[in-house]
Amino acid sequence: DEEVHKSIVQLPTSPVPMMMIGAATPEQEQEYLLPSVDGKLHYAFGQTEPNAGSDPGGMMQTRAVLDGDDWVINGTKTFISGATSADYILLQAVTDPDKRQRGGITMFIIDNPSPGLSFDPIRLWVNPGKAQQFTVNLDNVRVPQTKVLGNVGDGFTLGQKWLVHHDRMLRGSMATGILSRALEMAIEWAKERVTYGRPIADRQAIQYMLTDVYTDIMTLRSFTRETAARADAGEDVRVEASMIKYCAGEWGWRSIDKIMQVFGGTGETLDLPIAHWYHILRHARIGGGTSEIHKFVMARGLLDDRVNFQG
Ligand SMILES: Cc1cc2nc3c(=O)[nH]c(=O)nc-3n(C[C@H](O)[C@H](O)[C@H](O)COP(=O)(O)OP(=O)(O)OC[C@H]3O[C@@H](n4cnc5c(N)ncnc54)[C@H](O)[C@@H]3O)c2cc1C
User: Fold this and answer.
1) With 80 as the cut, is the pLDDT of residue 58 above it?
2) Domain 24-152 in CATH: superfamily?
3) Taking residues 145-161, what's their average pLDDT?
4) Ligand 1 within 6 A of CB of 293
5) Sign of the torsion formed by the C-alpha atoms of 54, 51, 48 and 60
6) According to the model, what pLDDT value does residue 12 have?
7) 43 within ligand 1 shell (Cβ under 6 A)
């Protein structure tokens, strides 16, 4: 993942719906998972709602009610990336309002198009020309019971496991991939750019920005790799995954800001990928759970005595 993010040219790969692995029925594997691995189908993930962003488990309102052999889903999801181009949406809806995130939210596989499913584009500063995020409206969308992913009521846990092991940890390698290429470019630039008779690389003000970025990369990379190894060994790394996500956003953003500063005005042009990376790393403080929410997760780990910081 780190190597992939050293370039802004996207590889022709398709995101694999990892949360299906181990949860999908044999029929769902054939119909959705394997074609997705082959890049023939694309999916979107629908959790966030207009009133349920940071607290989806407690605030989710999209409701699924069983009617004969089908679930009937009504509600609104928002900020759903790639929703219109997705062949199916893995979407969470409340099936038991009393239990909510503790057994009352279910993950559905919703084919796109489906009757009752519609989209409204959202314009973001990162891509004002072409929307990539959408509000998803569900108006009596009927989903057969065979399209429930995992067990009824397990959908929130399924989503959280995927977010911890894939989304959060992968943001660490995304940030180190971007920053290591950006630092390489900045070093080259600093050696060539001359002001007042000397390359800017000779100035301590510039050297300190480069060393700050270098420190962020090395620290985040080793922590991400250590946590990934611990996750592979079956350890509970929920708190550490939040720390990686938090650092990827906060350090990624502060570091790419320094890189842009080293490049001066050239760093703001679209001739270089710096501004594009700036957008991505600024977004990393919000998407996939905000920095504040990940600090909240870390604080709970600390106060509940669930983490070891003694070394
Ligand atoms: C480009 C983009 C792509 C996205 N893609 C997807 C997607 O594909 N699928 C999907 O489901 N969602 C997606 N999202 C939604 C994203 O996950 C949410 O925007 C994010 O979780 C924050 O929720 P919110 O926007 O409702 O902010 P809010 O929850 O309204 O938070 C607003 C502010 O309050 C702070 N805050 C909230 N609660 C607390 C608290 N308890 N303590 C301290 N501070 C708090 C937050 O940190 C934030 O600063 C995407 C968002 C964007 C912008």
Assistant:
1) yes
2) Butyryl-CoA Dehydrogenase, subunit A, domain 2 (2.40.110.10)
3) 97
4) yes
5) positive
6) 64
7) no
